[in-house]
Amino acid sequence: MNPRLRHWREAATLLLAAGTGARPGRSALGPCDYEVLLLKRSSRSGFAPGAHVFPGGLVEAADFSAAWLGLLPASPLCGLGSVKPPPAGSGRAPIFATDRRQLGSPLPGEVAFRICAIRETFEEAGILLLAPGSGPGESGGAGPLPAESLLSAAEVGEWRRRVREDAGCFLQLCRHLGCVPNIWALHEWSNWLTPVGRAGPGGRRYDTAFYLCCLGERPPHASEDEREVTACLMTSKSLATQSFVQYQQSADTIQLTLSRPREIRVWSSPPEAIELFKSREISLAPPQFYELCRLCNFSSLHELHKFSSDRALEGCECWMPIMLTASDGLIQLLPGDELYPEDPDYTGEMNTVMSTDKMVEDLMKEGSTFHRIVIKNINSLALYVNIQAKYKHMNPLMINTDCSDYNSRL
Description:
Its cofactor is Mg(2+); Mn(2+). One of its GO terms (molecular function) is coenzyme A diphosphatase activity. It comes from Anas platyrhynchos platyrhynchos. Belongs to the Nudix hydrolase family. The protein is an alpha+beta fold. It folds into 2 domains: about 10-240 and about 265-320, Nucleoside Triphosphate Pyrophosphohydrolase (Alpha-Beta Complex); about 320-385, no CATH class. About 20% of the residues lie in helices and about 20% in strands. The protein has helices at about 95, 110-125, 145-150, 155-165, 170-175, 270-280, 285-295, 300-310, 360-365; strands at about 10-20, 35, 40, 50-55, 55-60, 130, 180, 185-195, 205-215, 230, 245-250, 255, 265-270, 320, 320-325, 330-335, 355, 370-375, 380-385. α6 (about 270-280) crosses α7 (about 285-295). It is globular.
């Protein structure tokens, strides 16, 4: 862990996209020929309880194990492409820039964080992103090896239990199958830090590497782990009283015996997921909302894959949202916004609080350079971005989940 970011626990998460095949996108926000995987966190979770998130979790020491070097290709980055030097005046995100050898690990962070994301995806959703032999994978789609074709259902369940209890068992699983984690199918996408004041129990805050992986034409089967993830199927509002109904679960539907709510699947296109959030059928944290709005720029899986694989060579910024409390809501300020502090308090030790008696609408009228998420309540978010994107990235579409539109008043 980088000493400068000692207040965070390192983590990795995966934006997993798969083609819809012949089924067209159904969102009013526009067509989309792919879907992403969102998992519902347990209501007992210490961080973001009940929220829908991309699969991922904390990095474990086993993800940095030197034993991986006996399975992966022998090269400085195990066959991964080198990221270009950052633009003048910028630096590589600390989570990636840290020299892991000085921390006792021979495995580069770029490799270990990908292993973590793949391991967590298996633990939480039962999806194995593996490549045969020692890799590296091909430059096209990830083409995961279906878990059900490698292991029986009972074996999948047993291995998930073992990996969940001991992350080192993921290496044993790969050896058992004669495969390796398909780290080459994961493209560096973004890096988010938990804001000061938004820590979980015990002051836990996270420095999370986000990766993007594009699969083939059909989404693989996913299933909940019954611990961290209570359901892979997104739950509709009508299931709030689920103790009074009987339902059957399949790979992509919920069937109720007493009512027929809107079907909500484990895989949803980014526009569909935002519509579900807008109708309060699912809950999203601001980073997930932001990244889904960013994905809404791409209606084609092929286009998304080409963009992500080309752009990943540029690296990414490290973002820590700064909370600004207004009289009628909150604003998460992101780097580049005119109100973002020049020297943000990364540690929280300065106890700096940004607040104003002004209303959100007044702040929007007075401003001109925006990179912010306006939060009115848990299901009312709005994005305002007019800065130049860095690292050849693409700004998210500016989407509001309520009826307000401050842009028309600027």
